[in-house]
């Protein structure tokens, strides 16, 4: 059934799409669309013992987010986003990535421990029509990771148009916990992305100064590429793998009725035990797994609620509205036989501050470069003094910022001297947060992570052990995961030797 153009404009206004043109309607921005929840295709590859081969085709396409209208997008093996890749600890994966775009791309395995030349960062470019083979052994524990474009200066627009997907790792332990693990039935991937559309349904990207400063934010929320969908729950205990796949936005997830839920995993693995709460903050690129009890068989809305400390610039109150993420309809749910385990991991995370050999400091900076920055620029100091910097420097693909010793344990102190929060990410490692301004981290982020949100004025200390992979030439990245900040220079490179 085709919707008339006029009705389309109307429905967009209700969901806030044409916000600037329809301010009076914004107050009623609670409408949940009838869109059906889509479970992404599951790709377990072609298995030959412990060798698993995946074939991924990056391609341009058209996607209907709104009835009767097509949006130009990018996907992997489909028009928007990619399949959920799934493999086991101990597997060796062989991933063939073909670039069907007219521009350079890369595919980065976010959260994965692997050799630098297999990482899919800005150095592993794939030219149009070329195929890149990434091969590595999965040696880390069960977790919800993801993959996305990491092309130099193009990560933001490529991911915004859909170049991303989820990567699930299983292990012996995760199979035995008795958690909901029936894919798409009671174990449900949710890639959450906010987007802004033009009136012709094309994606609007970097059209204003705030976009450049804050990163791309929009008032339309997609879950697995569907606008505010409704998930019909089949079981009364479900596990959501919540992945913030947005370019910039931080969410503060909560249910419309305030019901409690359990956080069971953070970015790179299970927490020690389930943590009960009624809200959880998730910055760009972060993941949490949660268990929700739906045995009251009601309908409930997953929202992002205003946060006391969104860490955003005061003049840009982007996080002060309630956003509808998706609706969960549990009226038909069967009573689940699953139980919430008391303990999720038997051993403590093995990251010992006593064996730390090196401590490094990173200062996240934005705005005019200051006097030093400006002077260095004029004196030919390269990329110093750009708008987005770490320790005074903007990313330069020819500059290696430091060397790390393989197998060593380091503490990094990341501080933020700017006026907005930045999600800081490190490639190749899983870290633990030691403290935030000297205080212990929130229980929901007490597990293994690869992204940490650093609010203005905070100093966060993280501890990590670098694996044995070494390569004196090819670096790994560390950067802000607001993709527009990364593209504009808030990124650096290190080699492991
Ligand atoms: Cu999610 Cu450097 O990336
Ligand atoms: Cu990464
Ligand atoms: Cu940033």
Keywords summarizing the entry:
497 residues; mainly beta; Immunoglobulin-like; 3 domains; seven-stranded mixed β-sheet; binds CU-O-CU linkage; binds copper (II) ion
The low-pLDDT segments are 1-33, 310-317, 370-383
**Helicity level, as a percent range?**
under 10%
- What class would the helix/strand composition place it in? mainly beta
Question: Alpha-carbon distance between the termini?
Answer: 60 Å
Total number of helices: 7
Question: What would you say this structure looks like, in words?
Answer:
- With 497 residues, the protein is mainly β.
- The chain folds into three domains: 30-172, Immunoglobulin-like; 187-329, Immunoglobulin-like (Sandwich); 353-496, Immunoglobulin-like.
- The chain is built from seven helices and 32 strands.
- A seven-stranded mixed beta sheet has the order 13-12-11-15-20-17-18, with no helix packed on it. It has a five-stranded mixed beta sheet with strand order 1-5-10-9-7.
- The radius of gyration is 22 Å and the shape is globular.
- 48% of the residues are buried.
- Bound molecules: CU-O-CU linkage and copper (II) ion (CU) (2 copies).
- Residues 108, 110, 425, 427 line the site of one copper (II) ion (CU).
């Amino acid at each position: 059934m085709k919707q008339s153009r006029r009705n389309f404009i109307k429905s967009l206004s209700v969901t806030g799409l044409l916000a600037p043109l329809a301010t009076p309607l914004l107050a009623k921005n609670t409408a949940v669309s009838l869109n059906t929840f889509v479970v992404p295709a599951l790709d377990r590859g072609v298995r030959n013992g412990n060798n698993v081969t995946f074939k991924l085709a990056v391609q341009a396409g058209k996607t209907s987010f709104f009835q009767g209208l097509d949006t130009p997008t990018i996907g992997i093996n489909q028009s928007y986003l990619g399949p959920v890749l799934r493999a086991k600890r101990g597997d060796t994966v062989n991933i063939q990535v073909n670039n069907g775009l007219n521009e350079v791309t890369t595919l980065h395995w976010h959260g994965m421990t692997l050799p630098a030349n297999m990482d899919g960062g800005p150095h592993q470019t794939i030219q149009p029509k070329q195929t890149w083979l990434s091969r590595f052994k999965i040696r880390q524990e069960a977790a919800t990771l993801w993959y996305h474009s990491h092309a130099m200066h193009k990560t933001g627009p490529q991911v915004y148009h859909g170049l991303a997907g989820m990567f699930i790792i299983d292990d012996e332990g995760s199979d035995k916990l008795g958690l909901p693990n029936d894919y798409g039935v009671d174990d449900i991937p949710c890639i959450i992305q906010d987007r802004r559309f033009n009136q012709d349904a094309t994606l609007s990207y970097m059209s204003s100064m705030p976009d450049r400063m804050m990163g791309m934010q929009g008032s339309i929320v997609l879950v697995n590429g569907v606008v505010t969908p409704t998930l019909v729950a089949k079981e009364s205990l479900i596990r959501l793998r919540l992945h913030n796949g947005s370019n910039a936005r931080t969410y503060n997830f909560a249910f419309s009725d305030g019901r409690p839920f359990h956080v069971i995993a953070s970015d790179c693995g299970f927490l020690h035990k389930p943590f009960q709460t009624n809200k959880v903050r998730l910055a760009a690129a972060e993941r949490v797994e949660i268990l929700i009890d739906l045995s009251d068989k009601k309908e409930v809305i997953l929202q992002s609620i205003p946060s006391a400390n969104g860490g955003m610039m005061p003049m840009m109150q982007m996080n002060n509205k309630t956003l509808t993420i998706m609706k969960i309809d549990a009226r038909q749910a069967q009573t689940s036989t699953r139980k919430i385990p008391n303990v999720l991991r038997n051993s403590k995370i093995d990251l010992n501050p006593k064996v730390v050999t090196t401590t490094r400091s990173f200062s996240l900076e934005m705005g005019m470069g200051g006097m030093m920055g400006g002077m260095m620029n004029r004196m030919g100091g390269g990329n110093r003094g750009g708008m987005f910097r770490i320790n005074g420097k903007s990313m330069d693909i020819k500059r290696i910022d430091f060397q790390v010793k393989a197998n060593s344990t380091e503490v990094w102190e990341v501080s933020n001297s700017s006026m907005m929060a930045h999600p800081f990410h490190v490639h190749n490692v899983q870290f633990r947060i030691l403290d935030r301004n000297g205080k212990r981290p929130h229980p929901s982020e007490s597990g293994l992570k690869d992204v940490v949100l650093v609010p203005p004025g905070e100093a966060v200390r993280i501890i990590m052990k670098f694996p044995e992979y070494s390569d004196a030439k090819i670096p790994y990245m560390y950067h802000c995961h607001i993709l527009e900040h990364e593209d504009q220079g808030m990124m650096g490179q290190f080699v492991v030797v």
